[in-house]
């Protein structure tokens, strides 16, 4: 075809040539000539639709939307109507409400004498269907309302009927053939999170849906978009790597390789992204100072993921295409080398890492949010607590509706610069008095922390876990740190090296951690319960009633719990006597080992509560390291060996079985036992549905997931009525 004719209509001759070209392509690609029998064409078209279920695009779409691959699809065969048979014909697309804002306005576009593809393909510019659909560029065009008023009237009545019937905003395709309106398709329209909320609240107030139906309209995960900054959807972006979507939100900043540097740059008002092989508790300050965190290793329950979620910071974890050279301070992705100060952007809901600074938009919370969440609270039975270990996170969680703390990880409090030396002194102590001397330095810090948290909770329950992680996490690493410690505790450098060597463990996650620390060094737990109780007495004097829940981690054997309980109760009694004051408290345990779940009936006799630590319970049930699983779990999911990452969504068949079993056994042995979950699953909708079904009392999750958990709990109540 001649060049100058390219942007005009094809002639009849062009079409003939084109048809021949298409026929020869069909013959070469399929080995058959193009079918001419209509029934043959129809069956081939039907088969093509069925086959499309397995094309690459469809597979990707299902993966992104969590749709199972074995559902299959359906085919509708219907006769055609033609919008392109003259000027009394038209075709168009309309939305019954605004899918970007949720505003109640009917709007859309149409074309006279056209067929559907002409509207969506951009070959001709469509006109607005009514004044509500006009924008600056099409102010003078005739609307459908003006051009075909009766058709528009019928379309209006029809869309209202459809909204009432489907009880949701509709995205409708229509065709007019010889002045008669036909609907080609109607479906619930896709929408932004902001629009979803407004539409749900408006539909309820218009009497179209009940509160329950409105609550079911929103996928809890989409609330994430409302609570975190997000990428500007109009900004262009270049994706340079992809990792695990560990904590949602978008962050942009200069690359920084150490926590100290991140902290100092942010003090100068710079925006930074902390890039680490993996993070450890020592990185807390740097993480807090960053706009986002990017790690090369670690899974969805790695330190970086858990802490970032708690802080509400974007995090992309386990991004295995990153090559980080800590010596040279470089990050290599493919053949591009990034240095400190280069800008990158991370999007923690998708796991994408982008080149340069991609603009972001702030989170917006509207009054519709409060209305909607209020309905969720009226309906749900499952309580929602938060995992928080400082007053700031606690306040955020309470603002988001948390009904208490379900897990306060005390070890996070030990890493502040003025405390870490005393912590190391405690670890390196070789006698009980030496350890007690170091612990005495930590006591006032812990007490102060707890008073702050109790105040932020305003009387809500507070579950505090005693020290859990392996001690090696606190060891000094660099030569300077070792020298500083040697000086602080007044020993030779060699002594530090020797003790470090002795403290080394081959498998620290299964080593000297959890209640095993309390059994071997009871003075550590005694100091912690003293701080918890003294803080509660102090809070009581300020008019805040707290009932602390003291939680012993990683119990496998009932005797571990009963022995520690006896020691700690006796110590608490001495605190009461000394202070001349008492407070109510509970003492219970985490269930995070299969043995504990299996022997729950015995353990329950010594516990006021159980809290399922499903991160460790998943790790130990599967025999799968939570910090290393990121490397291969994706493949397991891609090959359908597992339906989902079990560190993200509870494995109901295996780990869930243990949770249900232990709950039943625990309740039979101790009818007053209070039962919750505090692993990362406590904020995941499907796992929350499971927790509701098996009758747990509460779930606990990171502050920014509290609204998601509240909505999920309400949906679980509605669905399982
Ligand atoms: C757990 O194991 O589920 C838990 C909450 O504890 P942590 O993640 O601190 O090990
Ligand atoms: Mg644990």
Description:
The protein has 721 residues and is of the alpha/beta class. The protein has four domains: 3-65, no CATH class; 90-191, D-amino Acid Aminotransferase, Chain A, domain 1; 229-361, Phosphohistidine domain (Glucose Oxidase, domain 1, 3-Layer(bba) Sandwich); 380-470 and 505-719, Phosphoenolpyruvate-binding domains (TIM Barrel), CATH 3.20.20. It is 44% helix and 17% strand. The chain has an eight-stranded mixed beta sheet. Residues 1-7 have low confidence and may be disordered. The chain binds phosphoenolpyruvate (PEP) and magnesium ion.
Describe what is shown at a glance:
By secondary structure, the chain is α/β, with parallel strands linked by helices. Helix 11 links the parallel strand 10 (272-276) and strand 11 (292-295). The N and C termini lie far apart (65 Å).
Task: Describe the protein's topology.
Layout: H1 12-30, H2 38-52, H3 56-65, E1 90-95, E2 107-112, H4 116-121, E3 127-128, H5 144-147, H6 149-166, E4 170-177, E5 180-188, H7 193-205, H8 211-216, H9 223-227, E6 230-231, E7 239-242, E8 244-247, E9 250-256, H10 259-267, E10 272-276, H11 284-289, E11 292-295, H12 303-311, E12 315-317, E13 322-325, E14 330-333, E15 336-339, E16 343-347, E17 352-355, E18 360-361, H13 367-379, E19 383-387, H14 391-399, E20 405-409, H15 417-428, H16 432-457, E21 462-465, H17 479-489, H18 493-503, H19 515-520, H20 522-541, E22 548-552, H21 558-579, E23 586-591, H22 594-598, H23 600-604, E24 609-612, H24 614-622, H25 630-638, H26 655-669, E25 674-677, H27 685-693, E26 698-701, H28 706-719
Parallel strand pairs: 9-10, 10-11, 11-12, 19-20, 19-26, 20-21, 21-22, 22-23, 23-24, 24-25, 25-26
Antiparallel strand pairs: 1-2, 1-4, 2-3, 4-5, 6-18, 7-17, 8-12, 9-16, 13-14, 14-15, 16-17
Helix pairs in contact: 7-13, 13-28, 14-16, 15-16, 16-20, 17-18, 20-21, 27-28
This protein binds phosphoenolpyruvate and magnesium ion.
Residues 592, 613, 615-616 line the site of magnesium ion.
């Amino acid at each position: 075809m001649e060049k100058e004719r390219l942007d005009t209509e094809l002639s009849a001759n062009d079409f003939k040539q084109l048809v021949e070209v298409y026929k020869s392509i069909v013959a070469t690609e399929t080995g058959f000539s193009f079918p001419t029998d209509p029934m043959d064409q129809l069956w081939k078209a039907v088969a093509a639709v069925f086959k499309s279920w397995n094309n690459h695009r469809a597979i990707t779409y299902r993966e992104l939307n969590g749709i199972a691959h074995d559902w299959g699809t359906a085919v509708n065969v219907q006769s055609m109507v033609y919008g392109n048979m003259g000027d009394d014909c038209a075709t168009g697309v309309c939305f019954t409400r605004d899918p970007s804002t949720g505003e109640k306005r009917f709007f859309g576009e149409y074309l006279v004498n056209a067929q559907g593809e002409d509207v969506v393909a951009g070959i001709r510019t469509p006109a607005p269907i009514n004044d509500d659909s006009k924008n600056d560029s099409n102010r003078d065009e005739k609307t459908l309302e003006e051009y075909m008023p009766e058709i528009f009237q019928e379309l209006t009545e029809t869309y209202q009927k459809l909204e009432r019937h489907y009880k949701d905003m509709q995205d409708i395709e229509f065709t007019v053939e010889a002045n008669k309106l036909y609907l080609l398709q109607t479906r619930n329209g896709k929408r932004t999170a902001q629009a979803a909320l407004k539409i749900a609240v408006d539909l309820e107030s218009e009497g179209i849906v009940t509160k329950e139906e409105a609550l079911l309209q929103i996928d809890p995960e989409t609330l994430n978009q409302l609570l975190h900054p997000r990428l500007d959807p109009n900004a262009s972006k270049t994706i340079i790597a992809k990792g695990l979507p560990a904590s949602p939100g978008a962050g942009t900043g200069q690359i920084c390789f150490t926590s100290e540097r991140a902290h100092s740059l942010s003090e100068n008002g710079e925006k930074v992204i902390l890039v680490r092989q993996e993070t450890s508790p020592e990185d807390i300050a740097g993480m807090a100072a960053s706009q986002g965190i990017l790690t090369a290793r670690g899974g969805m329950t790695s330190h970086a993921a858990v802490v970032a979620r708690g802080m509400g910071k974007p995090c992309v974890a386990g991004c295995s295409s990153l090559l980080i050279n800590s010596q040279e301070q470089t990050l290599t992705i493919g053949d591009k080398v990034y240095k400190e100060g280069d800008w990158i952007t991370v999007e923690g809901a998708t796991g994408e890492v982008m080149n340069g600074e991609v603009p972001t938009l702030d989170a917006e919370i509207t009054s519709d949010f409060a209305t909607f969440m209020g309905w969720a609270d009226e309906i749900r039975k499952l309580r929602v607590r938060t995992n928080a270990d400082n007053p700031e996170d606690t306040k955020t969680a309470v603002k988001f509706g948390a009904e208490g703390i379900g897990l306060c990880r005390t070890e996070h409090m030990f890493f502040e610069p003025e405390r870490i030396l005393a912590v190391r002194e405690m670890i390196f102590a070789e006698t009980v008095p030496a350890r007690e001397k170091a612990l005495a330095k930590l006591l006032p810090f812990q007490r102060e922390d707890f008073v702050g948290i109790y105040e932020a909770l305003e009387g809500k329950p507070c579950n505090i876990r005693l020290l859990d992680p392996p001690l090696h996490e606190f060891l000094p690493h660099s030569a300077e740190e070792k020298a500083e410690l040697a000086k602080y505790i007044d020993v030779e450098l060699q002594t530090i090296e020797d003790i470090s060597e002795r403290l080394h463990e081959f498998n620290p996650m299964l080593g000297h951690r959890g209640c095993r620390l309390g059994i071997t060094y009871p003075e550590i737990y005694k100091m912690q319960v003293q701080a918890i109780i003294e803080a509660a007495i102090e809070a009581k004097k300020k008019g805040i009633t707290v009932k602390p829940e003291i939680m012993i981690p990683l119990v496998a054997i009932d005797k571990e719990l009963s022995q520690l309980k006896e020691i700690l109760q006796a110590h608490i009694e001495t605190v009461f006597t000394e202070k001349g004051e008492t407070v109510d408290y509970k003492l219970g345990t985490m269930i995070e080992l299969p043995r504990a779940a299996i022997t729950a009936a015995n353990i329950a006799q010594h516990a006021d509560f159980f809290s399922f630590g499903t991160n460790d319970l998943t790790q130990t049930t599967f025999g799968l390291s939570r910090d290393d699983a990121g490397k291969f779990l994706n493949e397991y999911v891609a090959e359908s060996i597992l339906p989902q990452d079990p560190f993200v969504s509870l494995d109901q068949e295996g780990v869930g079985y243990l949770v249900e079993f232990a709950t039943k056994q625990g309740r039979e042995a101790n009818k007053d036992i209070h039962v919750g979950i505090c692993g990362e699953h406590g904020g995941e909708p499907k796992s929350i549905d499971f927790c509701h079904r098996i009758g747990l009392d509460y779930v606990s999750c990171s502050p920014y997931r509290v609204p998601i958990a509240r909505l999920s709990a309400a949906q679980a109540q509605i669905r399982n009525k």
